[in-house]
Design goal:
Layout lengths: L2 H35 L10 E4 L4 E2 L2 E2 L1 H15 L5 E5 L10 H11 L7 E4 L5 H14 L4 E5 L5 H10 L3 E4 L10 H22 L9
Parallel strand pairs: 1-4, 1-6, 4-5, 6-7
Antiparallel strand pairs: 2-3
Helix pairs in contact: 1-6
């Protein structure tokens, strides 16, 4: 290998190292912001609570989903919202949608059927909010509290902002992600999804609309 080739190889290695450090720094900053925002509670009077979907099993919401629904039920009972919008489509291997199962769960908790709205076509968080926004428009609702796990709120609220929703963060006061053995994988996933979406936003001509 000639000196020129060695110098070129060395240059590529240095550039790759700098790029790697920059990526890691960005991901670390994103993770810190996600953890910091998870403590933000903007709960106030709004038209509806939007419960972001999660997994279901045997016609019952998962423990994670149950915590979200329970919080929305409390918001309704405490007078913060007049309606609850359940989100989530039918996952692989399921017969009923996440929203349908969540709605039934809420009604068993005492929420009147007329106060429960559903969107049953989404499979990811952004679709949850896009479709929930349509439900709001169709039913004269203008403001919403977004309900999900604390570490999920940063990404969810960014979606809501880009959808021009008048929405406020209302994270669940309890979560199944209690220990770092469960929180860390969730945080890593959220950091990747959040950072990926921030990057994708740079190439969008205009924000997505509901």
């Amino acid at each position: 290998m000639t000196k020129r080739e060695k110098a070129r190889k060395s240059g590529w290695i240095k550039a790759a190292a700098v790029l790697l450090i920059a990526v890691l720094a960005c991901l670390t900053a994103a993770a810190v912001s996600i953890v910091s925002f998870s403590k933000t509670d903007e709960t106030k009077k709004a038209d509806a609570a939007i419960v972001l979907g999660a997994s279901v099993c045997d016609n019952s919401p998962s423990p994670v989903f149950s915590e979200r629904i329970n919080h929305a039920v409390d918001l309704y009972n405490d007078g913060y919202v007049d309606a609850i919008i359940m989100t989530g489509g039918t996952g692989k291997g399921n017969i009923r949608s996440e929203a349908d199962i969540a709605g039934e769960y809420a009604e068993k908790k005492g929420i009147p059927a007329e106060a429960v709205f559903m969107e049953e076509d989404s499979s990811v968080t952004e679709e949850n909010l896009v479709n929930a926004g349509k439900v709001m428009s169709e039913n004269g609702m203008d403001t919403a509290l977004i309900v999900s796990d604390p570490l999920h709120m940063k990404r969810a609220m960014l979606y809501a902002k880009d959808l021009n929703m008048t929405a406020y963060s209302s994270p669940t006061p309890t979560t199944m992600y209690r220990s770092w053995n469960t929180r860390l994988p969730f945080l890593i996933r959220e950091t990747i999804y959040y950072s990926g979406y921030r990057l994708a936003r740079l190439f969008r001509h205009k924000p997505a609309q509901p």
